[in-house]
Write a structure and sequence with these properties.
Elements (H helix, E strand, L loop, with lengths): L4 E2 L9 E4 L3 H6 L6 E2 L5 H13 L2 H21 L11 E4 L5 H13 L4 E3 L2 H15 L5 E6 L6 H10 L3 E3 L1 H5 L17 H12 L7 E5 L4 E2 L2 E2 L2 H8 L2 E7 L1 H11 L7 H9 L7 H13 L2 H24 L8 E4 L4 H18 L1
Parallel strand pairs: 1-5, 2-3, 2-4, 4-5, 6-8, 6-11, 7-8, 11-12
Antiparallel strand pairs: 9-10
């Protein structure tokens, strides 16, 4: 480790990671566990950038330097006031340049063994992208398949509770992957933030044990699954959940019951199906959404939208589906889902 510098591979060696970038940059993505202590806030960075372009680099540094000094002083008197003498922080900015450099200089003057991340966030981002291109090939996936309403995500949770390795892509994406998949009160992460979280999960998985993952499209809501991962999943062995239509409908009515309290939200989601179904069908669905007739609505969505879409997409993209062992379920309540998880793991153990 160079004096005062650290590489991305060493980022876990420190007591704390400080992101010296603006709150807006931090919100888009950041190193896991980082604390945002900006040396320039969103507005100040715009001011300094404008001065640099319209006047001179010197003028930008003169004005920016005063802002940076004031902000660092506030952090020293606030969040960092009680840090012990042996505290070792790692500080980064966008490229490992002046913002993090100034912060590290002050921290080292105080007496802390502060280090600057070499290459900054850009170096971190390059590592994440490179690792996401390599990690999936080292893992063995078991792809949980089944039509909408088969409780696949809940099954992943049950498998995890029984000790299996699980990759919950919908959980990381903050979206359930269908036209009604947006979660109430939960915005999706940015693409970069999704990939950082995904990298964190993948690197922690044991390549000697199978990883259960749900069959997904390339896109979950607004985020995309990295190419290497989606290709590895689609080439993997599958397990197929075959639940009765009544069990699937009952599960959807439980799992999406909240939509009955938000008819306008439900109608807006259904409007995205325009062009895929007749105007008459869409009008009927909109009426059911308005009156809270979820059983009728979800039943027709299963028969006319989800099942036909599933038959077209899954068999086209998942090569292991035809040979997949089938696990039958007449009920998809908690006990039924746990029984499915037990049966899948028992079958996996018998193959080992």
């Amino acid at each position: 480790m160079k004096q005062g510098l650290a590489t991305v591979a060493q980022h876990t060696d420190f007591d704390e990671i400080i992101d010296a970038r603006t709150p807006a940059e931090f919100a888009e993505d950041h190193l896991p566990g980082a604390l945002n202590l900006p040396v320039l806030d969103n507005a100040q960075r715009i001011v300094v950038g404008t001065l640099y372009k319209q006047r001179s680099a010197f003028e930008a540094r003169r004005v920016g330097g005063a802002m940076v000094a004031e902000n660092i002083a506030r952090h020293l008197a606030g969040p960092l006031a009680n840090k012990p003498k042996d505290w070792r922080p790692l500080v980064y900015c966008w490229r490992g340049g002046q913002r993090s450099g100034a912060f590290v200089t002050w921290l080292r003057m105080v007496g802390w063994d502060a280090h600057q991340l070499e290459g900054g966030y850009k170096a971190w981002r390059r590592m994440v992208v490179a690792e996401l291109a390599q990690l999936p090939a080292r893992l063995t996936f078991r792809v949980v398949c089944g039509p909408t309403g088969s409780a696949k995500t809940r099954l992943l949770h049950a498998l995890a509770a029984r000790g299996a390795q699980v990759l919950d892509l919908e959980g990381l994406a903050g979206h359930r992957g269908s036209v009604l998949g947006a979660l109430p009160g939960q915005p999706q992460p940015t693409q970069k933030s999704f990939e950082t979280a995904l990298f964190g999960v993948l690197r922690g998985l044991d390549p000697n044990r199978p990883v259960y993952v749900e069959a997904e499209s390339r896109k979950i809501g607004a985020v995309h699954i990295p190419e290497a991962l989606i290709m590895a999943i689609r080439a993997s062995a599958c397990v197929f959940i075959e639940a009765s239509r009544s069990a699937r409908l009952a599960f959807l009515l439980r799992d999406y019951a909240w939509l009955g309290d938000e008819p306008a939200r439900l109608q807006a989601d259904l409007s995205r199906l325009k062009g895929l179904h007749s105007n008459e069908t869409l009008a009927r669905w909109q009426d059911w959404a308005a009156t809270g007739a979820l059983a009728e609505l979800f039943g027709e969505l299963i028969d006319l939208h989800y099942d036909p879409l599933y038959r077209r997409s899954q068999r086209l993209h998942y090569s292991g589906l035809e040979r997949a062992p089938r696990f039958y379920a007449e009920r998809l309540d908690d006990a039924g889902i746990d029984a499915l998880a037990a049966a899948i793991l028992a079958a996996e153990a018998s193959r080992a």
